[in-house]
Design a protein that fits this description.
The chain has 195 residues and is mainly β. The protein has a single domain, classed as Lipocalin, CATH 2.40.128. 14% of the residues lie in helices and 53% in strands. The chain contains 2 helices and 11 strands, in the order H-E-E-E-E-E-E-H-E-E-E-E-E. Strands 1-4-5-7-8-9-10-11 form an 8-stranded antiparallel β-barrel.
């Protein structure tokens, strides 16, 4: 049986299409909690900067580098707030701040990814906290993917930063006397392991 040039061309074209569609498949990643941290900073009476973190979270990332799309779903345990000062932590958990008894979690869902080449430079989505949802854009301070020698899988991540106005979520304690600034800088250090 003779293979014609048109048959070879058709096979090559089909292989190219299949290869292209295989590359465009979105990859699933699980957030690695040992290499992820959500940090915040707020000015105290316009002088020093109060800093803290949330120590418990979980989430997933979908990333399609070929199509330049993605989605991140991050849930933060608000009771895990940690400033290193026990009385301050207790105050932040109360009703006039994070009200963790009524609103135990905050959630960020980002579904608009901006790329520069193969690097994620921005993720936009919605942050829900205290039952209120507002748009938030996280800027990537660094993004990279690498083959992790320990887990033998691809890991992607970076540092992402945003400034959030807490009054938009009803967090108004200390605004009148400027005890704590309205603008809160949030930095999320995140790494996620390909599944």
């Amino acid at each position: 049986m003779k293979t014609t040039l048109s048959t070879l061309t058709a096979i090559a074209a089909a292989a190219f299409v299949l290869a292209g569609s295989a590359q465009a498949q979105p990859a699933q990643y699980k957030i690695d909690t040992t290499h992820t941290k959500a940090l915040w900073e707020a000015k105290h009476f316009g002088t020093s900067t109060n800093r803290g973190s949330w120590d418990k979270y979980e989430g997933d990332v979908t990333l399609d580098k070929a199509a330049k799309t993605g989605k991140v779903d991050l849930t933060i345990d608000m009771a895990s707030v940690n400033t290193g000062v026990a009385p301050f932590n207790a105050h932040l958990k109360k009703e006039d701040f994070f009200n963790v008894e009524k609103f135990p979690t905050a959630k960020f869902v980002g579904d608009k990814f901006k790329f520069d080449g193969d690097k994620v430079v921005e993720v936009s989505g919605n942050l829900t906290m205290l039952g209120v949802t507002n748009p938030v854009t996280l800027k990537a301070l660094g993004f990279n993917c690498y083959e992790n020698p320990f887990v033998k899988r691809e890991v992607c991540g970076g540092d992402f930063e945003a400034v959030v106005k807490r009054s938009l979520f009803g967090l108004n304690w200390g605004l009148a006397n400027k005890a704590t600034s309205d603008e809160i800088k949030v930095t999320i250090q995140v790494e996620a392991v390909k599944q």
